[in-house]
Design a protein that fits this description.
Number of helices: 9
Low-confidence stretches: none
Shape: globular
Structural class: mainly alpha
Largest sheet: none
């Protein structure tokens, strides 16, 4: 019997809150069941297992993240779009550490193809980078550079990994400036260094 009021949507929203409070790695079906005051078994009519819950949370958080990025970059191009994209990314990662961690898990490609939020993420990210005149395979390389830079910076910042006596935001701004320069002067596939 399905407990009244429990839905997949409510479970995923509660999982997002729990992940932010306790950490994505501490998210469990048992912890979520306790939040609703039910037995673990009550949740299994809505989610198959912990992996299913984590994937649903990853898709939910990915949707939230791209909604914020899309609003930030709307009507912008070039460095202005990159700065807005980076700022929205960083703000989300720092404000929602558990949800952000969920966005980093590996998801089966078939699920990605079915996710409007993840397709939108690709469209917005690649669209911003096309403003720099990039085409494939350079687009994929540039996406990987941005993702690894933004992710590494946010993870280090949230863990208190920057100990130097320098404003962390100032360093972030310099990193975004450096990315803009790299994208502006991108070594195109097939170009020779000669």
């Amino acid at each position: 019997m399905v407990r009244a009021g429990l839905t997949v949507e409510r479970l995923v929203e509660a999982a997002a809150e729990l992940a932010d409070e306790a950490g994505f790695d501490r998210l469990s079906v048992s912890a979520l069941a306790r939040r609703f005051g039910v037995k673990d078994a009550s949740l299994y009519s809505h989610v198959r297992n912990l992996q299913d819950l984590r994937i649903r949370l990853a898709l939910y958080a990915g949707g939230e993240l791209i909604d914020r990025i899309a609003a930030a970059v709307a009507g912008r191009a070039g460095k202005e779009a990159l700065t807005a994209f980076a700022g929205a990314y960083r703000d989300y990662a720092l404000a929602h550490p558990g949800r952000y961690a969920a966005t980093q898990i590996r998801i089966d490609q078939s699920l990605i193809a079915d996710s409007a939020a993840l397709r939108r993420t690709a469209e917005i990210t690649y669209g911003m980078l096309r403003g720099y005149g990039l085409q494939e395979p350079d687009l994929t390389d540039a996406v990987r550079l941005l993702r690894s830079t933004f992710h590494g910076y946010c993870v280090l910042e949230s863990a208190g990994g920057f100990g130097a006596d320098r404003d962390v935001r100032a360093s972030w701004d310099k990193a975004v400036d450096a990315l803009h320069l790299a994208l502006t002067h991108w070594p195109r596939e097939g170009e020779s260094d000669d």
